[in-house]
Amino acid sequence: MDGVLVLWDVDHTLVDVDGLGREAYDLAFLRRFGVPVRHQPPMAGRTDRAIAIDMLRFNGVEVTARHLEDLREGAEAALDELAHLLPERGRALPGRPRRSRRSRRGRSSRC
Fold first, then answer.
1. Overall pTM > 0.85
2. CA separation for the pair 33, 15 (Å, rounded)
């Protein structure tokens, strides 16, 4: 995996994907549980697990390990399907404009 950089943007400071994450969760929920999402959980600044737990709970689905895994797998598949929309709908946010010296030398840097 040389040359690959993976970033988690849990606080919405690096990229804006124009709601594709929510669309993926909604699609996964519909496919896995047979009903549309009626009550949306907050997403900004939260982990996928916290979002999934609230999505299940808010929409009357029992929170079990199996249901959480079903929703995670479904959202991952939906994101793969929606990935082609990123170039037209996604945009970089100001975030951290340049790498620190430490990261250029191969060590992680703190934000």
1. no
2. 30
